Amino acid sequence: xxxxxxxxxxxxxxxxxxxxxxxxxxxxxxxxxxxxxxxxxxxxxxxxxxxxxxxxxxxxxxxxxxxxxxxxxxxxxxxxxxxxxxxxxxxxxxxxxxxxxxxxxxxxxxxxxxxxxxxxxxxxxxxxxxxxxxxxxxxxxxxxxxxxxxxxxxxxxxxxxxxxxxxxxxxxxxxxxxxxxxxxxxxxxxxxxxxxxxxxxxxxxxxxxxx
Length: 211
Fold this sequence. Notes:
31% of the residues lie in helices and 32% in strands. The protein has five helices and ten strands; from the N terminus they run βββααββββββαααβ. The longest helix has 19 residues, at 43-61. The radius of gyration is 16 Å and the shape is globular.
């Protein structure tokens, strides 16, 4: 799938508690977005580390398990590492959402930890895949958060975003649909991000995937 992504800090801030990552090889596509919890220590480190670690753990240790189980184990290990952090960043926490595509079977999986959001766009429908959930999750239970999404169609697209977009843009779902349906979606994407910067009350990260 084609992808485009951008992250911007809230107005007047030089730091950004959001992060994202995109990985693709011959068998899998992994798209990840995170929003560090600002009330906790080192929100920027938590989000950046989680996005990197999920992919690294999958690549280095779990590919022999298959895609879904490999991601599930990588998700647990990602949060194990966060929870075990000591020193000035002890207690850091982040949301984490991901779309994972099995390029062999054309199926996708997804998960959502925290209040960041994944929307699925298909034909004229918009489906929210990640209703808000609590952070109080034991790491051993995290693998069960990886869900089967089903088979992709030629019209399937996804939007992964932190909650800043809903703070900034009340009609963000309709605006994202316009971007994904545009022939020049990169230009439309830039326009949406520019509008977000005008009303940037929170860090905001947006990643779009389309076929």
